Amino acid sequence: xxxxxxxxxxxxxxxxxxxxxxxxxxxxxxxxxxxxxxxxxxxxxxxxxxxxxxxxxxxxxxxxxxxxxxxxxxxxxxxxxxxxxxxxxxxxxxxxxxxxxxxxxxxxxxxxxxxxxxxxxxxxxxxxxxxxxxxxxxxxxxxxxxxxxxxxxxxxxxxxxxxxxxxxxxxxxxxxxxxxxxxxxxxxxxxxxxxx
Length: 196
Known about the structure:
Layout lengths: L8 E3 L7 H15 L3 E5 L4 H10 L5 E6 L14 H9 L3 E4 L7 H7 L8 H12 L2 H15 L9 E7 L1 E10 L10 E9 L3
Parallel strand pairs: 1-7, 2-3, 2-5, 3-4
Antiparallel strand pairs: 5-6, 6-7
Helix pairs in contact: 1-2, 5-6
């Protein structure tokens, strides 16, 4: 039987303070595996900037997935336009993506007329509670990036997400489109918080 041994990093606690380490670990694993794409979630741009600094000069493409316009407030995009323009001028790809693991489903669960949980949100909650919130975010951003044609579905990428803000989880994923969710494979956990 063959196997490989790899380093996994465990943070004592979740949170944005882990972001610089996550960026370094993501680049480290991408280089080890010869991967050329890192997907990361960023709401207001700070995480995107930290990851950009980590990938700069490596030849690795950075794909940043942000909330859609109207996520927190109707008609408003939380990611500063100036920051997006600056990052895009440096070659960073920024995607505004509807949450693949909630989206329209959330409208149903929030409705006082309908209420209740959806099957899609049950998947999201399972990832959040049994592994890490950042894993759910990384998986979701990978689905969004695949749906936008920014990552291939036939080769691996590195993806990162976090708990509320920043990044505290890094994994290697074989992407899939949202409509083919169960073909997605989380192949490695590179870093995650032990205490959630």
